[in-house]
Amino acid sequence: MTGKNSPGMPRIGRLRPIASAAALLLVGGYSPAQAQQQDATATDQPKLETVVVSANRRIEKLEDVPASITVLGEETMQRNNVREFVDIVNLSPALSVSVGTQVGTNSINMRGIGTTSNNLGIEGDVAIIVDDLPYSQAQQAFKDMSDMARVEVLKGPQSTLFGKSSIAGAVVMSTKPIGAGPMKTRVSVYDTSDHEYRVNASLSGRLTDTVGLRLFAAKTNFPGLLHNLTNDSMQNGSGSKTFLAKLSWQLTPDLDVLLSPHFDHSLSTGNTPAVTYIDPGVGYLFNKNYTALSNTAVLRDIHISRWNREIRNDSPSGLESTDRGLGLRVNYAFPGDSPLAGHSLTSITSLDNNLSNDFRDNDNIDLISTFYQVDASGKPSGIADPPEINGTTDSKTSTQELRLTSPDGKPFRYIVGLWAARNTVYRTYYRGNPFVKETNFTNYDTNSGSLTHAVYANSNWDFADNQSLTAGVRFNRESNDYSFHTIDSLSSTAPTNKHTGEYYYVAPQHKENAVTGKVGYTYHFTPDVMVYGTASTGSKGVAYDMTSGANNPNVFAHLPLASEKANSYEAGFKANLLNNRATINAAIFQTRFRDYQTSATERFSDGSQASVLYSIPSIQTRGFEADTQLLVARALLLNANLAYTRATVRSWDQGPCYSGATDCTIPNRLVPGAFLRDASGGTMPNAPKWKLSMGGEYTLPQFAALPYATAINAQWRTQSTVMGAISQDPSLRRPGYGIFDLGASVSGGKGKWKLAFGAKNLFDHHYASGNVGSFLNFKRASGGDVKSYGWQPARDAFRYTYVRLDVGF
């Protein structure tokens, strides 16, 4: 695969062009059964597969790319039963997820930095890209990750090649390519002891010499971990129905077309909390004069404990989403007699429509709390409607990219491209009861749209036998439109049920230009050992408030929020050692962000308060990370991935106050007479200082009594304590944990079938993906309040067993 080199010359970027997407399946995911000789003269020494990546939008050896990248291949994902994005997070220490009150508000963090907001008017900090097509909303990632061949986790700002929503990093996913031979079918069935099932089937291959087809369909369902005693159902589960297709057509020897439609319907019933602690004594919810809502009645039959899994809800909670899209990729390879011989011109077009509905039981109980809530006269409302949340989102995205790629195997290689994208979001939201203040009633609709044009270039220059430079630049122009329509709401601190009435806000169109870039230097000690250093910048667009906080006209006074900016420095070491039996990729990094966009609680001059968007002047993440593999013997492969991250707030003297805070003494610069707290020095939410994943696979020797290929695998992951919210509320701090998985597999028929089974969380170590401070507040007839707290268990917070069968024919 490599080009010729002069004696002693390192192989820097010498891979020949790979026209077929199937070559990307070489990325990562090695299992001992895949050990192979790398050339005909090699001895019978087991070796690791060569890992190639597409971080620079071309296929390159991992050791030749000056960037910290974690690669998960198909074998790795299959062995660890990867289905949803959280499964990828479990295997990549640089990633974490912030779990919100609703599934649609979950956010993705890279190196401790992510969009800590429940706002659709703000872009994510981590881009999710599938087959060169970007997701417009982070919530689109929290569904079934179907038919995946590999995942590349690109750490640090990636704005130059992947756009403005990758200011903290990017997760680049590739689905399986069309088979190179005749049409073949593969079926997979998965079942667990806690009633999760997955069924999928694929049909892939060549219809003719010039036409290929891949079809994939899947259905999954997991009932959930929490038992709703009210209707004897399960909560905090997920399920989906997915259909993917790929149709390729080689129109001429130089021109090929790939059409890829997709459909997904998913339902997630999170993120409901269960009560884990309550102060002793009887209290009354909302009003101490009405005993019908005592905590003993509200929590009847619930066995409160640290790991409680029982709830009482009279309304459903979750996110239902339907995603439809189409991708079109046209690639033209310039012929040999052309001035651009060896170059390729690629056009990538995408259309995507995401419709979703998020809903929630807003009081987390099954009694009609609105009936007993009182107005200023002390009389109960008598309203018997449960307070609920219902929000709909209609997101439409279209993109167009045109990319010119120079030949591989040259000392100077480059990519230049044009990019255009249009994204529109229409949002409606209804929460609570229009006559009960305590339900935080609001009813609004809002629109936002953005139009982006960009031109970019990236180059690699091997200017010496063992040295190379990488450089890239992107010019981005963005225009935004935004409007907010308050239909009705209740002022949150009004003494009576005072309706704010209808209000319209239309923002002036905002236009902004941004330039981002990167530069890197690589030095090869040998063809397989190198060091590098890089500097890069990132820029994310302005943000608008699309939440209930914008019901207050004071919010609009400081919109849009300024663009978020980043400056990053990274140094790394990569090596392929022991005759390609061991690899190590290590890096140290520091990235600083200014005008970081987040959500925080704000008080306004009319006395109301709400969660609105805010800018933090400066935050920082820095640390160390390493990925290693060691092929101890042909039958034994070990791996380890480590991340040490310090993600902190450098400067923010306008931080939010949390319940019980005693240092809210900083005057609010936007609202005279109100006070905030200095949150400088705080820890970024859901950013563990230490995170480690390590494991291995051992293939048993084959003999007459055991004629099939049999392997045993194990994986252990652990992380340290995390802060649950940027407010630094100590009640939201979550302890660290360690999870151990054990599995085995038997395969035969030359790969035609494989049976895998095992246990997840073998030692039954319980842990939370999210927690809730002041879950329900009860008042005593006299004395202080009775407080309670809750948790949201992770998918594998309790031990379960699984079995999986894959069959090809």
Automatic annotation (TrEMBL):
Identify the species of origin: Massilia agilis
Task: Return the InterPro entries for the record.
Answer: Beta-barrel_TonB, Beta-barrel_TonB_sf, Plug_dom, TonB-dep_rcpt-like, TonB_box_CS
Where is it localised?
A: Cell outer membrane
Q: What is this protein called?
A: TonB-dependent receptor
Q: Where is this motif: TonB box?
A: 50-56
Bias class Polar residues marks the residues at 390-403
Recorded family membership: Belongs to the TonB-dependent receptor family.
TonB-dependent receptor plug domain spans which residues?
Answer: 62-170
> Which portions of the sequence form the region Disordered?
378-404
Span of domain TonB-dependent receptor-like beta-barrel: 319-762
